[in-house]
Amino acid sequence: MKKLYFLLLLPLLYFYGCTGGCSTSCSSESCKDLVCGKYFYTMTDSVDNKLIEGVINISDCEGDKIGGTYSKDKIYNDNFLGFSSMTGFFSGNVKVNEKKASINTNPKIADNNIFIGFDIKNESLTGKWTFSTMRGKIGWGYFSAVKVKN
Asked: Average pLDDT, whole number, for the chain?
């Protein structure tokens, strides 16, 4: 009889654990399921002129942290602010419940970085990039990516 009560209470305990506290991170989708993978990406300037195309590989997904590599395969304009700071490695954070993420394209230095914030959709990422220095944001544009089909 005690086992029956326990089995009946188990779903309630799980529900309370996932909704009852501020520090709970239960969700139906994990960071890895939501965003990890390879994407073809495009960066444009603020008037939608192409700057770069390449592949971004979001391979490190641990909790709300992400990281990986990116390539600059087609460069349309290498004179935009922040281009020289793009090193090929990135780190960032994901808000799984909001389906949003942000990455730093050069996590080894504190300023002169391009930061990308994007919304996560089924098979795509869309958002904006900003070039930030010690003086603040001095350049921006658009970012879009489509998941590579295996």
From this structure: 83
**Nearest CA-CA partner of 114 in 137, 134, 95, 93:** 137
Q: b/e per residue, 80-118, with b = 16+ CB within 10 A?
A: bbbbebbeeebebebebeeebbebbbbeeeeeebbbbeb
CA gap 3, 5 in Å, rounded: 5
- For 21-32, what is each residue's pLDDT tens digit? 333 343 446 777
Q: Would you call 49 helix, strand, or coil by DSSP?
A: coil
58 contacts 35 by C-beta, under 8 angstroms: yes
In angstroms, the CA 29 to CA 19 distance is: 15
Q: What is the pTM of this model?
A: 0.78
Q: What is the pLDDT of residues 74-129, one digit of tens each?
A: 999 999 888 998 989 999 999 999 999 999 999 988 788 999 999 999 899 999 99
**Separation of alpha carbons 29 and 99, rounded Å:** 10
Tell me the residue type at 76: Y
